[in-house]
UniProtKB/TrEMBL annotation, chains A, B, C, D:
Name of the featured protein: Inositol 2-dehydrogenase
Top-rank taxon, per record: Bacteria
Annotated GFO/IDH/MocA-like oxidoreductase domain residues: 127-247
InterPro entries the record matches: Gfo/Idh/MocA-like_OxRdtase_N (IPR000683), GFO_IDH_MocA-like_dom (IPR055170), Myo_inos_IolG (IPR030827), NAD(P)-bd_dom_sf (IPR036291)
Keywords, in A-Z order: Oxidoreductase
Domain Gfo/Idh/MocA-like oxidoreductase N-terminal, chain residue ranges per copy: 2-119
GO molecular function, one term: oxidoreductase activity
A Pfam family the protein falls into: GFO_IDH_MocA
Family: Belongs to the Gfo/Idh/MocA family.
Length: 328, 328, 328, 328
């Protein structure tokens, strides 16, 4: 049984807490959150302790940490945990500054602890099925990847202000997905964007709608289509076109009841947001981390993956500003 | 080039007229209809003559007749045409009285002319694909056939009065489809029905909603689900469950535009009625009849098929009245 | 926190154990199973005790029992639990003999304890959505209900021998669903069946393929289509056709990855069997039982529902043997 | 009745010939093609004459011309027809050289004859439904348009050599569709491309896979995804995401028969190529041109539309070569 200290008792922390508790080999040992009330509720639910950061890091009973706190605390907590010899599961991103990420990863490497960066979509049964079918040769050589990723509704502007911007906050998942699926590093990137959904986002200096085009050494290309607002749920689709066919991941729908009436048929919408859509992915991600804890494998989404995705986000921003293709 | 005399210039006659004219080997030679105005319009459109029944039958230029007139004229016209040596395409049914059908078919046999009874659905590309896949062994031995057939809206009561009732008018297509797909004759039949759609239909002594269950020598069963009113278009589906899988014909949809909004997605309805849904079937049916005219093959839907479907309709009615399974 | 004693540590007992443990208001208190090894594994997993039947019934800490043991023990255990004042959740059926069911329910009534019979499909989000939409007037008056229910593969014959036969074992869920959706009791029933899937089932005196037709006071009809073997997963569909439209529940699919190649597209199959397909239903069922435990409501699937479904199964068998419609 | 002279008896000419003949107000009057044998076959089929180009242009009986000959003859034929006072239907493109297009359109304008450029997709019932729903306010303001357009298989290299390249030959349809749907002119364009499908295409100096990104004055963006080879049929999809929802045009499928077996379900592929997929569009396009002939309206796809689409193709090529966004 592995004891886990959870940093952050918010929305995403609660998802992980449930998966930690449900897994037969892990226990939610402690909750660390400066917002004591939320920490207390979560801790009580699963019979966990409240700890301070220092207590958790120093506690020899803690086998691993799950960092789901505010973004700007990630790198510091990773370094503390690494020095304390804990296995680390950290929500993306490691940090919004690439140099800081690299420093942090150097520390992790020196301490020889495993670090899993929470690119949850890699563990989604749909996307990992695409990867497996590609590797099995089902569609030959990949030629064109199209990722559609739209949030149901834009976040509040105070979130935008600390998010690092669309590319570092939202597209970062798609950058990682493109690298994961294609299995090679892009050689160029181009980004175009717009502020058309919510004027307040533009006032904050960010865009809310974007298209990214990447080219890979094989000549294959990837397109990412993003919006901060779908209006119809969490739009999470992927198409991989290869030399021998197409693999297509449709949205997972909220139900399966269809109505046929005088004028139209009506059907379900996609699952509302990440909590619903990636429920299975979060559970599979935790299952994988338990295998990492057991020492059976290295994290499928590493610190290096986190660094590369952030690098692509930075370069996308550079392309957006210059209007040119950036060679990588 | 085969010259065709068309009996009946109504809705179904007009469909056939267009197919006759569009086929490179057939010409709409003449139109016969006591309602001269409708006949004239149709004849002008395709450069055809107006003829009386006697003229058409006696005209040596007429190679074949297409009978799309009122149901109660079918058997008489078939006999006249058979005696005149014409190839015959007759809309279903031959007659509503089984004894009359048998007499008529005896005449046809004696005259040695081909007779195609217009069970249009046999020629539908969807249903004939199911038949072909079954024959190719795709699903092994058939075990359970389910036919859903609902009209968009009930006909006027004066139509009901001359229709022969739901089983002889509407289900007759499904009886033929069941025999066509299963490739064996049912050994028993059961019918249950209801008047729930339109009280006027009940007042006319008919039902508007029905379920029929047939059993076949192999042990396979077929279920037919009928209604005079869908409310959402022409509901024409079929499922054939076999020892090695399922073949499923979904409705053909009126378009392919889907909307996703805040509360629901919206999509197309099935094609509205038989003219739209079976457009390809009518064209293929005519193409097959041209092959019959050329002497290349016998009709895939024969007079005997017409007789058997009517027989099943009669026995379904007997079951409805007795509440028992009728052995055939 | 309610303490639950679980009778039966088999496949279905394990599903319930997980739901009991995951619910914040219930605890898996004890496991009762003559097969001690299985009981031990399950008890260890959730920190529960092993108890004998007598111990559990006598234990004042036990608030409710969940009976998931062999079918022939259900009625006896229900009566013991009722006399011990426990709230009762019992897997269907109460018993295979209708008279025994009625005796048992009399005892339950006398003891004034709640009894929920585990018709899990009533709690399925898809089917309960249909019921809710019907009650909200979405499709007007119900006219025709079609339930398709096919297991992925036939059970072993030794299961068939103790199952009570297809109608009492498998169709019983569909009888309950028909009553649940229609909201009225059928006035007649007809059944037709066949042994075509597995000869061993026929040798055991049972059928493996069936069609049932029921008529309701309103004139509406219901059709149930059953097979012991789909070959493509758990086929669980429902269509409710009303005076103002159709509600259609499609299968829940095992994934959402589609392949398009040179000759065909390929897609997912339905979820494999009840454990996957009704995962959400089992969780919702338990949530409902917790509300019953809290005294907030009566069970939505009662002992009477269990009795009525068994009655319909018995009458279906009578119809199968007589070949006639049975008035109810 | 309008008499039409058809220039070009090839594949696309044959489609138009059938539509001309089937329309009650138009007659295929003559066929003009230097390849006399093909012209003769087509003329015989519809009872048309063979004419030389000069004869057709001089013939006062010819009301309109349909130009479906080789691309490099279009502009010359348009000018001849314009000077002869004929209404003109010309397949895209007018010419591959933009200056030549402009000269040609000047001549047409001077002669005051109508010119319809055959952007067939504008007349497709699916895409015109999207346009109509957008205009009706169904999805609010357009924000992101995604067009997927993949041919089933690459053309032979000798076709590539005279095609003008991917953008002018294939993407030109998508440029027109983007302008048609968005209802505004793009302000910038970016293109990325690859030769990955067929090395011979690269040897010919062309690409076979491309992604184009355009931005519009409103801030909306459009993405075009092209490939010369799908491998699974003619992939013709469109998504228009607006401030109040999404409109999505799926592929039209070749049939509606689905198979469910032990390991997978199988379904239809998209219609094979443009002849099948745009059958309804070609008929609607002709119907519209008849309204133009009647003087009821101007062409919905004009010479100017042809010019603008070619201009975008040229600018896409400039972007591909420079790696930068081109301001328009």
């Amino acid at each position: 049984m592995f004891n886990i200290a959870l940093f952050g008792a918010g929305r995403i922390g609660q998802i992980h807490a449930a998966n930690i508790a449900a897994h037969p080999e892990t226990r939610l040992y402690s909750v660390v959150d400066p917002y004591q009330q939320g920490a207390q509720v979560l801790a009580s639910r699963y019979g966990a302790e409240l700890q301070s950061c220092a207590e958790a890091m120093a506690d020899p009973n803690v086998d691993g940490v799950l960092i789901a706190s505010a973004t700007d605390t990630h790198a510091d907590l990773i370094e503390l945990a690494a020095k304390a010899g804990k296995a680390i599961f950290c929500e993306k991103p490691v940090h919004l500054d690439l140099a800081r990420v690299r420093d942090c990863l150097t520390t992790v490497a020196a301490c020889q602890v495993p670090l899993l960066v929470g690119f949850n979509r890699r563990y989604d049964p749909q996307f990992s099925r695409v990867k497996a079918l590609l590797l099995a040769g089902k569609i030959g050589k990949p030629e064109s990847l199209v990722i559609t990723s739209r949030d149901p509704a834009p976040p509040p502007v105070n979130y935008i202000n600390v998010s690092g911007g669309l590319f570092r906050d939202m597209t970062i998942h798609d950058f990682d997905m493109a690298r994961f699926i294609m299995g090679e590093e892009p050689t160029s990137i181009y980004a175009q964007g717009s502020n058309i959904v919510d004027a307040a986002i533009g006032d904050a200096g960010d865009i809310d709608t974007a298209i990214v085009v990447m080219k890979f050494p094989s000549g294959a290309m990837a397109t990412i289509i993003n919006s901060r607002r779908s209006g119809y749920g969490y739009d999470q689709r992927l198409e991989l076109h290869g030399s021998h066919g197409l693999l297509k991941v449709d949205n997972i729908l909220a139900h399966q009841v269809h109505y046929y009436g005088n004028d139209t048929s009506q059907g379900p919408l996609p699952e509302h947001f990440f909590i619903q859509r990636y429920q299975a992915a979060y559970a599979a991600e935790w299952q994988h981390f338990v295998a990492v804890l057991r020492g059976e494998c290295a994290p499928q989404s590493s610190g290096y993956d986190g660094e590369r995705a952030l690098y692509l986000a930075d370069q996308a921003l550079a392309s957006l500003h210059s209007g040119t293709t950036i060679a990588l």
